[in-house]
Amino acid sequence: MVDSCSRQSAQRGSFAKSWTSSRLPHQTQPPGLHFLGASCSARDTVRVSEPAVGESVESEPVETELAETESITSTETSADRCGPPRPDLVPPAAFRRGVINVMADPSARPRARSYSSIVSTPTVTTVADGVHVAAGPDVNWTLLVDGTDVTLIDSGYPRYVGAVIESLARLGRRPEDVRAILLTHAHIDHIGGAAHFATTYGTPVLTSSVEARHARREYLEQAGPADVVRNIWRPGAAAWALRIARAGGTRSGAVPDADGFEAVVDAGGALDLPGAPVPVASPGHTSGHTGYHLPHAGALLTGDALITGHALCRHVGAQMLPNLFAHDREGEIAALDAFTGRDADVLIPGHGPVMRGSVDAAVDRARRLAGVA
Length: 373
Fold this sequence. Notes:
By secondary structure, the chain is α/β, with parallel strands linked by helices. It has helices spanning 9-12, 17-21, 42-45, 79-82, 161-170, 188-191, 194-201, 209-215, 225-230, 237-246, 329-335, 359-369, and strands spanning 63-64, 69-71, 123-128, 131-135, 140-146, 149-153, 178-182, 205-207, 259-260, 278-281, 290-294, 299-303, 315-316, 346-349, 355-357. The chain is 21% helix and 16% strand. The strands form three sheets. The chain has a seven-stranded mixed sheet. A hairpin with a 2-residue loop joins strand 3 and strand 4. It starts with 8 loop residues before the first helix and ends with a helix.
């Protein structure tokens, strides 16, 4: 049987041989509407306007109840901070396993594909050395920079591609510098740009082995149009639904070559990728949802299992998304335990502003708001 990863070997080689030796043929999700992940970002809940260091940044009038945390100061990141790309540098060992070095060999670059984008000016916040959080109007993504190499964690909606590319440019990086896209989960607001990077630049798209099947759309665990209609009474829901529909929220977003990251886990549990993220299994929001711990930065990416703001939420601060976005609510609540007891004081959510403070306190607050504390 022919593996879909091997079909692209002439373009980008095999990212890791063991991935292609045991994969089953991909199934295709029947055509139809594919709606919607959750969506809200730092820009929906925080006005970034050069606040003083340590000053809490507040949004438009909204009920706020920050736990023992505070908003991290946000600034636009300049390309001068990191300097220009360095194509002469040799990528780390993990990326020399037969992968075509498109920086050193321009002839190996796939022909660029066009894309439609409605967002081109993301906010980029540096939260630690080599850790940068980008925010579009309705969702966040994270860039881990190690030398010239980048790990992109999540990729926004399909029509956020221009914003993702711009966030790389702010750091002096190009799409070709992304060594892998790492997904927290495969909802359309987090997976939307992944297919473009995979087909245009040959970028590997990785997540847990369970969620990889979701990314390939062998099954779908995502709120649909009927769920949105039932919740249209919520304040702001109509404007939010229109906004994310324009961003590509009804598209499939399938990534046929999405793979499990298990093949690149090192002996210490970290992934052999720029930034060395450590997977934190947190199923519930989706069956294979994964957070990522960055021990060197004291940061924890919680995806949609633990957020700090959303267009359909009344609060700002640590909380869970509304029930309509959860595949398994009980599992989602239980998964909060996975985020406690870790060496981290920076919380990077999939939606809402980055927060500093006790992650354990943030989890306690989310449980309390969910009525399970």
